[in-house]
Amino acid sequence: MAEKDYYEVMGVQRNATDAEIKKAYRDLAKKYHPDLHPGDKNAEAKFKEINEAYEVLSDKDKRARYDQFGQAGVDSSFGGGAGGSPFTGNINIDDIFNSVFGGFGFDGFGGGGGRHAATNAPRRGSDSESSVTISFEEAAKGCVKTINYEQVEACAECHGTGAKDGSTRTCPQCNGAGQVRVSQRTPFGMVQTTRTCDRCGGTGKVIDDPCTACSGSGRVHRHKSIEINIPAGIDGNQVLNVSGKGNAGVNGGPDGDLHVLVNVQPHPIFERRGIDIWCELPVTFTQAALGAEVIVPTIDGKVEYQIHPGTQPGDVFKLRAKGIPKLGSRGRGDQYVRMTVEVPKNLSQKQKDLLREFESSAEEKNYQKRRSFFEKLKDMFGE
Ligand SMILES: [Zn+2]
Ligand SMILES: [Zn+2]
Questions:
Q1: How far does the centroid of ligand 2 lie from the alpha carbon of residue 287, in Å?
Q2: Of the candidates 283, 262, 274, the residue with the CA atom closest to the CA atom of residue 340
Q3: Residue 262 and residue 129 share a domain
């Protein structure tokens, strides 16, 4: 495939200024815009080509690389042998076009059509939002909670029609279509587009005597409450979806869903990491030295645990399957217990004497970490 020369495409000199390039683009885009040539493949291809060229020539860096290396300089995939334009995959013609023309706010660019779905068609109701705060244990074990929320539902007075006597008449402006065709002046001349009818808001019906209960909207806000099952294993910031409990559908469409954001209060002892629980357990230095039977709290209650003689601060032991249940499946996480060793304070004279007596009896083998530290120190200073 022959390389297109972008300057030739734009019909400008190689030394053209930015303003000249922009003007050339404006003129060519007006001439070849697909909206003015419906179904004309040549015009469409030409329009793409113009945009591709403008995308490169309007960008200082890309233009410099193009001048030096040709297309290979501005497209990393160039040379892959694939046919077609190296740019069509990654340029947004609408963006380029709007950046030059400033956007007209009319529909129809980029194929258009289908953007105005009939507003009197059945539509699903929107989702409503609520939240609930539960304790750490409730999250771990599951619970039932009452959720208060606000729901939009069809007005009972007027059965959702918005009219006082329940009767409406066809909109005279759109004849019930909900849409009107309008002509707009654009740089290409007049363009026909479709707009939502502003008289009836797209419903195709007008109300002469609005319902007083809903001010003619056909919809009312209601405070509601619902009991929901919160499953075991839920974590903070997760959202539960309650199907069909959101806002009422429109024109007979289905109701939306209720989203419940779950907040979990922090626990004074336990910390959750995924499905595992972590906690700290303070022991005395005598318990750590001699070993001891200790009581460890878990979400199932207290359990006994035998700590080893010579337990060090920061040692961690694991209680298998004492963690959080896996949400929606079998199995549980584990509980990890990190030891902290408390050094005694406020010692009596007798306690001090006992500790000094212990210290004088201590041997190197009692303090292996300390010994290895001082040996490293000796090596370091060559003593
Ligand atoms: Zn209308
Ligand atoms: Zn009403």
A1: 74
A2: 283
A3: yes
